[in-house]
Amino acid sequence: MEEPLAADQTGTQDVRDTRPGQIPPRPSGVQRVLAKLPLVQRDTPPPELDELAVAIRAAGKADLREVVRAYRYAELMHEGQRRRSGEAYITHPVAVATELAQLGLGTPTLVAALLHDTVEDTPATLQDVREGFSDEVAHLVDGVTKLDRIHVDSKQEQQAETLRKMIMAMAKDIRVLVIKLADRLHNMETIGHMPRDAQKRIATETLDIYAPLAHRLGMQNFKLRLEDLGFGALHPKRYEEIVALVEERNPERAVLLDEVMDSLREQLRELKIRGEVTGRPKHYYSIYEKMVLRGKE
After folding, report:
1. Who wins on pLDDT, 114 or 166?
2. What residues does each domain of the chain span?
3. Is 61 exposed, middle or buried (0-12, 13-18, 19+ CB in 10 A)?
């Protein structure tokens, strides 16, 4: 969930007119809401879901029609809400679901990812989600909602309490944490629209809690991306300096890396061992950590 735009802590900017005498709030029952759509729209993927649909088809582990149905419901429930960037709020849950689809997760997780902010930020209720989708989806949405509602006073308490809650959630259903990590990842990718003090707080929390949690879950891609995004938000000048240094040395590093990989592949062939040799550049936050340890900050 995105950080709040107002004191209501919803994380969205609702531009609907709610003055007395205006159109009453939309019904939140899934069937009633979806019944307003033409039949052809209810399970046909719109262009906004192209990347998500490609990931689902590639993995073959989720029901695309049910995911589209969840999207249609979430889109209607979030209608009129905007992120700080000015984009429609629905772009956030779609990005979260797309990350998870690329990991090959199944229908309940993707549906919950699309609905993960509906109970917190719209007229939808957990009972609506349960009746309109399933107990399993409602369980996941409820788990993410409870994590979003953690509010304590001090930073130390906030970090410790968040970590405890997450560990408890992991014991119940690890998918809740995976959704939350994807949620944090997309929020970090769009953090530039937040006030500077909020950026620092969120980036620190990301480095202290979310990146280590991704590491514990074996989600190395998430861990590395969260670290680099957190580092860039917390120390933008140092981040830019390291990026420039890495780019400057990339050509010679690429040549050396190719030579080492070729040598290793040749040794494997000689030993008649089947294997794949790959290499990757060191990530920016990892470089920064080593520089700090060596006193070169």
Report:
1. 114
2. 1-131, 150-234, 239-293
3. middle
Which residues lie across from 14 on neighbouring strands?
81
Q: Supply angle C-alpha 271, 276, 280, rounded to 5.
A: 130
Residue among 102, 46, 98 at smallest CA distance from 72: 46
pLDDT on residue 151: 59
Q: Quick one: pLDDT at residue 138?
A: 97
Residue 124: how many CA atoms within 13 Å on its side-chain side? 33
**DSSP code of residue 209:** I
Residues in contact with 188: Cβ distance below 8 Å, sequence separation at least 6, in sequence order: 202, 203, 206, 225, 226, 229, 230, 233
Rounded Cα–Cα distance for residues 289 and 297 (Å): 9
Give the tens place of pLDDT for each residue, 37-64. Answer: 776 566 678 999 999 999 999 999 999 9
| The CATH fold of domain 150-234 | Hypothetical protein af1432 (1.10.3210)
pLDDT over 50 at 17, yes or no: no
Structure tokens at 273: 């061992």
In the Cβ-directed half-sphere of 87, how many Cα atoms lie within 13 Å?
A: 12
Query: Lowest-confidence range among 173-177, 225-229, 242-246?
Result: 242-246
Residues annotated as catalytic (active site), given as ranges: 120-121
Alpha helices in the chain (DSSP H): 30-34, 39-42, 50-59, 64-77, 91-102, 107-115, 118-121, 126-132, 135-148, 155-172, 174-189, 196-205, 211-216, 220-234, 236-270, 284-293
